[in-house]
Amino acid sequence: MEVKFESVEGRSLQYYLLLLVLALMAAAGAAVTWWASISGLWITGMTNRIPWGFQIVMAVYYIGFSEGCLVVAGLYGVFGKREYKPFVRIAVYLAMLFLIAGLLSIFTDQGRMDRVFVEPFIHFNLQSMFSINPILYLGHIVICLIFLGALFKEKEGFTRVIATLAFAWAFCVHSGTGAIFGYGARELYESPMLPATFVAAAMASGIALMIVVIVSLFKITKRQVDDGLILWLGKLMAVTITVVVYFVFVENAYRAYIVELREAAHYYLFGGFHSILFWFGLVLCGMILPMLIIFNRKTGHSVRWVIIASVLVLFGVLCERYVIVLPGLTHPPDLFPGMEITTVPGIKVDDGVVSYSISFVEVVQALGVVGVIGFLFVFGLKVLKLLPNEARVLDHHTPAS
Protein backbone atom coordinates (compact mmCIF):
# COMPACT_ATOMS: atom_id res chain seq x y z
CA MET A 1 0.00 0.00 0.00
CA GLU A 2 1.47 3.33 -1.04
CA VAL A 3 0.66 6.11 1.42
CA LYS A 4 0.23 9.54 -0.11
CA PHE A 5 -0.10 12.51 2.20
CA GLU A 6 -2.22 15.52 1.32
CA SER A 7 -3.36 18.81 2.79
CA VAL A 8 -6.99 19.84 3.06
CA GLU A 9 -8.34 22.46 0.68
CA GLY A 10 -9.66 24.70 3.45
CA ARG A 11 -11.86 26.84 1.20
CA SER A 12 -15.27 26.20 2.71
CA LEU A 13 -17.21 28.67 4.81
CA GLN A 14 -17.22 26.18 7.70
CA TYR A 15 -13.42 26.04 7.66
CA TYR A 16 -13.03 29.82 7.88
CA LEU A 17 -15.72 30.07 10.57
CA LEU A 18 -13.85 27.48 12.63
CA LEU A 19 -10.62 29.44 12.30
CA LEU A 20 -12.49 32.62 13.34
CA VAL A 21 -13.97 30.96 16.44
CA LEU A 22 -10.58 29.60 17.47
CA ALA A 23 -8.95 32.99 16.90
CA LEU A 24 -11.59 34.69 19.07
CA MET A 25 -10.99 32.12 21.83
CA ALA A 26 -7.26 32.81 21.66
CA ALA A 27 -7.87 36.58 21.79
CA ALA A 28 -10.16 36.23 24.83
CA GLY A 29 -7.54 34.14 26.61
CA ALA A 30 -4.82 36.69 25.83
CA ALA A 31 -7.04 39.53 27.08
CA VAL A 32 -7.79 37.98 30.49
CA THR A 33 -4.14 36.93 30.86
CA TRP A 34 -3.09 40.53 30.27
CA TRP A 35 -5.70 41.64 32.82
CA ALA A 36 -4.31 39.16 35.36
CA SER A 37 -0.74 40.34 34.75
CA ILE A 38 -1.80 43.95 35.41
CA SER A 39 -4.18 43.34 38.33
CA GLY A 40 -2.44 40.40 39.97
CA LEU A 41 -3.10 36.67 40.08
CA TRP A 42 -5.62 37.09 42.88
CA ILE A 43 -8.31 37.64 40.22
CA THR A 44 -7.78 34.02 39.12
CA GLY A 45 -8.51 32.76 42.63
CA MET A 46 -4.86 32.05 43.45
CA THR A 47 -3.57 32.57 46.99
CA ASN A 48 -0.35 31.93 48.87
CA ARG A 49 -1.69 28.49 49.80
CA ILE A 50 -3.06 27.76 46.31
CA PRO A 51 -0.40 29.04 43.89
CA TRP A 52 -1.37 26.45 41.25
CA GLY A 53 -4.84 26.14 39.81
CA PHE A 54 -6.74 24.94 36.77
CA GLN A 55 -4.11 26.18 34.33
CA ILE A 56 -1.47 23.93 35.89
CA VAL A 57 -3.93 21.04 35.79
CA MET A 58 -4.38 21.65 32.08
CA ALA A 59 -0.63 22.07 31.58
CA VAL A 60 0.20 18.58 32.83
CA TYR A 61 -2.83 17.23 30.94
CA TYR A 62 -1.54 18.68 27.67
CA ILE A 63 2.02 17.52 28.29
CA GLY A 64 0.63 14.03 28.77
CA PHE A 65 -1.12 14.24 25.42
CA SER A 66 2.22 15.12 23.86
CA GLU A 67 3.86 11.95 25.10
CA GLY A 68 0.88 9.75 24.26
CA CYS A 69 0.77 11.04 20.68
CA LEU A 70 4.42 10.08 20.25
CA VAL A 71 3.55 6.55 21.38
CA VAL A 72 1.34 6.26 18.28
CA ALA A 73 4.10 7.80 16.14
CA GLY A 74 6.55 5.33 17.65
CA LEU A 75 4.49 2.38 16.44
CA TYR A 76 5.82 3.15 12.96
CA GLY A 77 9.04 5.03 13.65
CA VAL A 78 10.40 2.81 16.45
CA PHE A 79 8.64 -0.55 16.19
CA GLY A 80 8.25 -0.65 12.42
CA LYS A 81 4.48 -1.21 12.27
CA ARG A 82 4.04 0.18 8.76
CA GLU A 83 0.26 0.09 8.83
CA TYR A 84 0.43 2.99 11.30
CA LYS A 85 2.53 5.16 8.98
CA PRO A 86 -0.62 7.08 7.85
CA PHE A 87 -1.05 8.47 11.38
CA VAL A 88 2.54 9.37 12.20
CA ARG A 89 2.61 12.93 10.78
CA ILE A 90 -0.57 13.92 12.61
CA ALA A 91 0.75 12.32 15.80
CA VAL A 92 4.09 14.17 15.74
CA TYR A 93 2.46 17.49 14.84
CA LEU A 94 -0.01 17.12 17.72
CA ALA A 95 2.79 16.09 20.08
CA MET A 96 4.57 19.35 19.36
CA LEU A 97 1.40 21.45 19.61
CA PHE A 98 0.34 19.96 22.95
CA LEU A 99 3.76 20.54 24.44
CA ILE A 100 3.38 24.18 23.36
CA ALA A 101 -0.12 24.15 24.91
CA GLY A 102 1.35 22.96 28.20
CA LEU A 103 3.95 25.73 28.15
CA LEU A 104 1.29 28.33 27.31
CA SER A 105 -0.78 27.14 30.26
CA ILE A 106 2.23 27.49 32.57
CA PHE A 107 3.06 30.88 31.06
CA THR A 108 -0.45 32.27 31.65
CA ASP A 109 -0.30 31.09 35.27
CA GLN A 110 2.81 33.14 36.06
CA GLY A 111 2.71 36.36 38.00
CA ARG A 112 5.98 37.50 36.40
CA MET A 113 5.67 36.26 32.83
CA ASP A 114 8.73 38.26 31.80
CA ARG A 115 10.95 35.94 33.86
CA VAL A 116 9.72 32.65 32.39
CA PHE A 117 12.06 32.71 29.39
CA VAL A 118 15.14 33.86 31.30
CA GLU A 119 15.42 32.65 34.88
CA PRO A 120 15.35 28.85 34.30
CA PHE A 121 18.25 29.08 31.84
CA ILE A 122 20.39 31.66 33.67
CA HIS A 123 20.14 30.07 37.12
CA PHE A 124 20.35 26.39 36.16
CA ASN A 125 20.20 23.96 39.09
CA LEU A 126 20.46 20.20 38.58
CA GLN A 127 18.88 19.66 42.00
CA SER A 128 15.68 21.46 40.98
CA MET A 129 13.07 19.83 38.74
CA PHE A 130 11.79 23.34 37.95
CA SER A 131 15.19 24.07 36.44
CA ILE A 132 15.61 20.75 34.60
CA ASN A 133 12.16 20.61 33.01
CA PRO A 134 12.43 23.75 30.78
CA ILE A 135 15.43 22.09 29.07
CA LEU A 136 13.39 18.90 28.56
CA TYR A 137 10.43 20.85 27.16
CA LEU A 138 12.52 22.92 24.75
CA GLY A 139 14.38 19.82 23.58
CA HIS A 140 11.07 18.03 23.04
CA ILE A 141 9.80 20.75 20.68
CA VAL A 142 13.07 20.80 18.72
CA ILE A 143 13.07 17.00 18.36
CA CYS A 144 9.45 17.05 17.13
CA LEU A 145 10.36 19.64 14.49
CA ILE A 146 13.28 17.50 13.29
CA PHE A 147 11.03 14.41 13.37
CA LEU A 148 8.46 16.17 11.17
CA GLY A 149 11.18 17.26 8.76
CA ALA A 150 12.43 13.68 8.44
CA LEU A 151 8.88 12.46 7.77
CA PHE A 152 8.26 15.07 5.06
CA LYS A 153 11.59 14.18 3.40
CA GLU A 154 10.74 10.43 3.62
CA LYS A 155 14.16 9.62 5.08
CA GLU A 156 13.38 6.25 6.68
CA GLY A 157 16.78 5.60 8.27
CA PHE A 158 16.97 9.03 9.90
CA THR A 159 13.27 8.81 10.80
CA ARG A 160 13.92 5.63 12.77
CA VAL A 161 16.77 7.30 14.70
CA ILE A 162 14.91 10.52 15.50
CA ALA A 163 11.72 8.58 16.33
CA THR A 164 13.63 6.53 18.90
CA LEU A 165 15.12 9.69 20.38
CA ALA A 166 11.69 11.37 20.47
CA PHE A 167 10.13 8.31 22.11
CA ALA A 168 12.80 8.19 24.83
CA TRP A 169 12.79 11.98 25.31
CA ALA A 170 9.01 11.96 25.78
CA PHE A 171 9.41 9.54 28.67
CA CYS A 172 11.98 11.87 30.23
CA VAL A 173 9.71 14.89 29.74
CA HIS A 174 6.74 13.39 31.51
CA SER A 175 8.83 11.67 34.15
CA GLY A 176 10.29 15.09 34.90
CA THR A 177 6.82 16.61 35.10
CA GLY A 178 5.72 13.87 37.49
CA ALA A 179 8.87 14.40 39.54
CA ILE A 180 7.88 18.04 40.15
CA PHE A 181 5.07 16.64 42.27
CA GLY A 182 6.51 13.28 43.35
CA TYR A 183 9.75 14.77 44.65
CA GLY A 184 7.95 17.58 46.50
CA ALA A 185 7.60 18.36 50.18
CA ARG A 186 3.87 17.80 50.67
CA GLU A 187 2.32 14.59 52.01
CA LEU A 188 0.09 14.20 48.97
CA TYR A 189 2.95 14.89 46.57
CA GLU A 190 5.78 12.87 48.05
CA SER A 191 5.74 9.63 46.05
CA PRO A 192 8.39 7.99 43.85
CA MET A 193 5.48 6.35 41.98
CA LEU A 194 4.17 9.65 40.59
CA PRO A 195 6.56 9.91 37.60
CA ALA A 196 5.62 6.37 36.54
CA THR A 197 1.91 7.10 37.07
CA PHE A 198 2.22 10.27 34.99
CA VAL A 199 3.86 8.37 32.14
CA ALA A 200 1.26 5.57 32.12
CA ALA A 201 -1.68 7.99 32.28
CA ALA A 202 -0.08 10.10 29.54
CA MET A 203 0.17 7.08 27.26
CA ALA A 204 -3.47 6.16 27.90
CA SER A 205 -4.79 9.69 27.32
CA GLY A 206 -2.59 10.30 24.28
CA ILE A 207 -3.70 7.10 22.57
CA ALA A 208 -7.32 7.93 23.42
CA LEU A 209 -6.92 11.39 21.91
CA MET A 210 -5.36 9.97 18.74
CA ILE A 211 -8.26 7.52 18.33
CA VAL A 212 -10.80 10.35 18.57
CA VAL A 213 -8.80 12.67 16.28
CA ILE A 214 -8.09 10.02 13.64
CA VAL A 215 -11.67 8.78 13.40
CA SER A 216 -13.06 12.34 13.35
CA LEU A 217 -10.61 13.66 10.75
CA PHE A 218 -11.03 10.71 8.43
CA LYS A 219 -14.79 10.95 8.66
CA ILE A 220 -14.89 14.72 8.08
CA THR A 221 -12.50 14.54 5.12
CA LYS A 222 -14.18 11.36 3.78
CA ARG A 223 -11.06 9.21 3.89
CA GLN A 224 -10.98 5.44 4.41
CA VAL A 225 -9.56 4.01 7.64
CA ASP A 226 -9.80 0.31 8.42
CA ASP A 227 -11.56 -0.56 11.66
CA GLY A 228 -8.78 -2.99 12.58
CA LEU A 229 -6.28 -0.16 13.05
CA ILE A 230 -8.57 1.67 15.48
CA LEU A 231 -9.53 -1.50 17.36
CA TRP A 232 -5.87 -2.40 17.87
CA LEU A 233 -5.16 1.09 19.23
CA GLY A 234 -8.09 0.56 21.59
CA LYS A 235 -6.48 -2.62 22.92
CA LEU A 236 -3.18 -0.82 23.37
CA MET A 237 -5.01 1.91 25.28
CA ALA A 238 -6.63 -0.71 27.52
CA VAL A 239 -3.22 -2.21 28.33
CA THR A 240 -1.90 1.20 29.40
CA ILE A 241 -5.00 1.68 31.57
CA THR A 242 -4.26 -1.54 33.44
CA VAL A 243 -0.79 -0.17 34.18
CA VAL A 244 -2.37 3.04 35.50
CA VAL A 245 -4.67 0.97 37.73
CA TYR A 246 -1.67 -0.82 39.24
CA PHE A 247 0.34 2.36 39.86
CA VAL A 248 -2.62 4.22 41.38
CA PHE A 249 -3.39 1.27 43.67
CA VAL A 250 0.22 0.93 44.87
CA GLU A 251 0.58 4.67 45.44
CA ASN A 252 -2.56 4.96 47.57
CA ALA A 253 -1.91 1.67 49.37
CA TYR A 254 1.47 3.12 50.38
CA ARG A 255 -0.17 6.28 51.72
CA ALA A 256 -2.70 4.26 53.68
CA TYR A 257 0.00 1.96 55.08
CA ILE A 258 2.46 4.58 56.35
CA VAL A 259 1.25 5.94 59.70
CA GLU A 260 2.50 9.46 59.03
CA LEU A 261 0.54 9.65 55.75
CA ARG A 262 -2.75 8.06 56.82
CA GLU A 263 -4.50 11.32 57.64
CA ALA A 264 -3.47 12.79 54.29
CA ALA A 265 -4.52 9.57 52.52
CA HIS A 266 -7.98 9.73 54.14
CA TYR A 267 -8.33 13.36 53.03
CA TYR A 268 -7.27 12.42 49.50
CA LEU A 269 -9.67 9.51 49.15
CA PHE A 270 -12.65 10.78 51.15
CA GLY A 271 -12.07 14.48 51.74
CA GLY A 272 -14.42 16.36 49.42
CA PHE A 273 -14.95 17.30 45.79
CA HIS A 274 -11.56 16.00 44.68
CA SER A 275 -12.46 12.59 46.15
CA ILE A 276 -15.56 12.48 43.94
CA LEU A 277 -13.34 13.18 40.94
CA PHE A 278 -11.02 10.40 42.07
CA TRP A 279 -13.64 7.67 42.54
CA PHE A 280 -16.17 8.66 39.87
CA GLY A 281 -13.98 10.45 37.34
CA LEU A 282 -10.70 8.51 37.48
CA VAL A 283 -11.56 5.09 38.87
CA LEU A 284 -15.02 4.51 37.35
CA CYS A 285 -15.01 6.59 34.14
CA GLY A 286 -11.28 6.58 33.43
CA MET A 287 -10.36 3.00 34.30
CA ILE A 288 -13.17 0.52 35.02
CA LEU A 289 -15.66 1.41 32.27
CA PRO A 290 -13.08 1.69 29.45
CA MET A 291 -11.55 -1.67 30.35
CA LEU A 292 -14.99 -3.30 30.50
CA ILE A 293 -15.75 -1.89 27.05
CA ILE A 294 -12.45 -2.85 25.41
CA PHE A 295 -12.13 -6.33 26.94
CA ASN A 296 -15.75 -7.23 26.16
CA ARG A 297 -15.97 -9.38 23.01
CA LYS A 298 -18.86 -7.43 21.51
CA THR A 299 -18.06 -3.81 22.39
CA GLY A 300 -14.31 -4.31 22.03
CA HIS A 301 -14.81 -5.03 18.33
CA SER A 302 -16.88 -1.91 17.69
CA VAL A 303 -15.18 1.32 16.64
CA ARG A 304 -18.08 3.32 18.09
CA TRP A 305 -17.61 1.73 21.51
CA VAL A 306 -13.84 2.18 21.33
CA ILE A 307 -14.43 5.90 20.75
CA ILE A 308 -16.76 6.00 23.77
CA ALA A 309 -14.06 4.27 25.84
CA SER A 310 -11.50 6.81 24.56
CA VAL A 311 -13.68 9.76 25.58
CA LEU A 312 -14.09 8.21 29.04
CA VAL A 313 -10.32 7.85 29.34
CA LEU A 314 -9.82 11.50 28.35
CA PHE A 315 -12.23 12.57 31.08
CA GLY A 316 -10.73 10.19 33.61
CA VAL A 317 -7.15 11.35 33.05
CA LEU A 318 -8.28 14.99 33.33
CA CYS A 319 -9.73 14.10 36.73
CA GLU A 320 -6.48 12.32 37.58
CA ARG A 321 -4.47 15.44 36.78
CA TYR A 322 -6.80 17.54 38.95
CA VAL A 323 -6.56 15.22 41.96
CA ILE A 324 -2.77 15.18 41.68
CA VAL A 325 -2.33 18.96 41.53
CA LEU A 326 -4.99 20.46 43.82
CA PRO A 327 -5.48 18.23 46.91
CA GLY A 328 -1.76 18.46 47.67
CA LEU A 329 -2.20 22.24 47.98
CA THR A 330 -5.55 22.41 49.78
CA HIS A 331 -4.35 19.88 52.38
CA PRO A 332 -2.34 21.60 55.16
CA PRO A 333 1.44 21.12 54.84
CA ASP A 334 3.23 19.36 57.69
CA LEU A 335 6.02 21.88 58.12
CA PHE A 336 7.29 20.41 61.39
CA PRO A 337 6.47 16.67 61.58
CA GLY A 338 5.42 15.54 65.03
CA MET A 339 4.93 19.10 66.27
CA GLU A 340 2.03 21.53 66.38
CA ILE A 341 2.37 25.18 65.39
CA THR A 342 0.50 27.35 67.90
CA THR A 343 1.59 30.94 67.38
CA VAL A 344 4.15 32.83 65.34
CA PRO A 345 4.76 36.47 66.40
CA GLY A 346 3.44 38.83 63.74
CA ILE A 347 2.28 36.03 61.41
CA LYS A 348 -1.16 34.49 61.06
CA VAL A 349 -0.80 30.73 61.14
CA ASP A 350 -3.19 29.04 58.71
CA ASP A 351 -2.60 25.31 58.94
CA GLY A 352 -6.07 24.05 58.11
CA VAL A 353 -7.64 22.72 54.93
CA VAL A 354 -8.40 25.48 52.43
CA SER A 355 -10.89 25.49 49.58
CA TYR A 356 -10.40 26.08 45.88
CA SER A 357 -12.79 26.47 42.98
CA ILE A 358 -12.06 27.05 39.31
CA SER A 359 -12.53 30.73 38.47
CA PHE A 360 -14.05 32.25 35.34
CA VAL A 361 -10.70 33.83 34.46
CA GLU A 362 -8.99 30.43 34.51
CA VAL A 363 -11.68 28.96 32.27
CA VAL A 364 -11.22 31.75 29.70
CA GLN A 365 -7.45 31.32 29.85
CA ALA A 366 -7.82 27.58 29.26
CA LEU A 367 -10.16 28.21 26.33
CA GLY A 368 -7.59 30.67 24.99
CA VAL A 369 -4.91 27.98 24.96
CA VAL A 370 -7.32 25.61 23.19
CA GLY A 371 -7.95 28.39 20.66
CA VAL A 372 -4.25 28.87 19.94
CA ILE A 373 -3.49 25.17 19.53
CA GLY A 374 -6.72 24.47 17.67
CA PHE A 375 -5.97 27.30 15.22
CA LEU A 376 -2.45 26.00 14.60
CA PHE A 377 -3.73 22.47 14.05
CA VAL A 378 -6.57 23.41 11.70
CA PHE A 379 -4.35 25.83 9.77
CA GLY A 380 -1.60 23.20 9.68
CA LEU A 381 -3.95 20.78 7.95
CA LYS A 382 -4.23 23.32 5.14
CA VAL A 383 -0.58 24.26 4.69
CA LEU A 384 1.10 20.94 5.53
CA LYS A 385 0.63 17.51 4.02
CA LEU A 386 -0.45 15.75 7.19
CA LEU A 387 -3.40 13.61 6.11
CA PRO A 388 -2.95 10.32 4.23
CA ASN A 389 -5.17 9.33 1.33
CA GLU A 390 -6.20 6.20 3.28
CA ALA A 391 -5.20 3.93 6.15
CA ARG A 392 -5.56 0.18 5.77
CA VAL A 393 -4.54 -2.98 7.57
CA LEU A 394 -1.64 -4.62 5.76
CA ASP A 395 -1.58 -8.34 4.99
CA HIS A 396 1.64 -10.30 4.75
CA HIS A 397 1.75 -9.99 0.96
CA THR A 398 1.11 -6.26 0.67
CA PRO A 399 4.22 -4.03 0.35
CA ALA A 400 4.20 -0.65 2.11
CA SER A 401 6.11 2.44 1.26
Short description:
This protein has 401 residues and is mainly α.
Order of helices and strands: EHHHHHHHEHHHHHHEE
Number of strands: 4
What is the alpha-carbon Rg in Å? 22 Å
Cα distance spanning the termini = 7 Å
For the biggest β-sheet, the strand order reads 1-3
CATH class placement:
Mainly Alpha
Give the biggest beta sheet: 2 strands, antiparallel
Task: Provide the β-strand percentage band.
Answer: under 5%
CATH homologous superfamily caption: Formate dehydrogenase/DMSO reductase domain
User: What class would the helix/strand composition place it in?
Assistant: mainly alpha
Helices, by number, come to 13
Instruction: Report the helical percentage.
Output: 55-70%
Uncertain regions: pLDDT < 50 for 5+ in a row?
396-401
Principal-axis shape equals globular
Q: Would you identify the CATH architecture? A: Up-down Bundle
If you had to describe this structure to a student in words, what would you say it looks like?
There is one protein chain. The protein has one domain: Up-down Bundle (Formate dehydrogenase/DMSO reductase fold). Helices cover 68% and strands 2% of the residues. The chain has 13 helices and 4 strands. It has a two-stranded antiparallel ribbon with strand order 1-3. Strands 2-4 form a two-stranded parallel ribbon. It is globular. The termini are close together.
